[in-house]
Amino acid sequence: VVVCGTLTRRAVEPTWMTASNALGERVGSELRAMIKAPPAYCLVGADVDSQELWIASIIGDAYLNKQHGATPFGWMTLSGQKSDGTDMHSVTAKAVGISRNQAKVINYARIYGAGQPFAEHLLKQFNPGMSSTEAKQKASKMFSITKGKRLYMLKKDVLPNLMQRTYTKYGAKEVCSLYGKSAEDIFEKP
């Protein structure tokens, strides 16, 4: 029996899941009495709302600039409320016109490594009438809102009159190809 099937050690095996159920008539509920903590340890049960999103946002924010709430993802996790529609799942759902439960599927897929192509696939699966072009546009919008966009600023010695402008990855590549130089030669690190 594989009891913990997620990164956060959440149970996934059906019989094991019923062990925490207090209803005595449920099959598997007798398993609860068989679980014992090792000497000097105790078992603690907890239900942490959006635990995986919290962990992912803390790790992402620590990587970016060591401040929780520094990314759109972290900010929505930190300050978003389901009741007023500002939590990650509600924002994602509104952005692309899907249900909150469908948005949860996409958001959890993303924190476990799914990228934009998989999000496009899920959007088309949720709405079979959606075209590939529309799915791509909606996925791009969703990633922009919840992840942000990486912008590049020119180094001081490159084109002084354009110093105040920032560039997307695509725009930065265009400037690099114009001048035949690498991004490291022209731009500050994002």
TrEMBL record:
PANTHER family registered for this protein in UniProt: DNA POLYMERASE SUBUNIT GAMMA-1 (PTHR10267:SF0)
Cofactor needs: Mg(2+)
SMART domains named in the record: POLAc
Superkingdom classification of source: Eukaryota
Protein name (database record): DNA polymerase subunit gamma-1
SUPFAM superfamilies reported in the protein's UniProt record: DNA/RNA polymerases (SSF56672)
A GO BP annotation: mitochondrial DNA replication
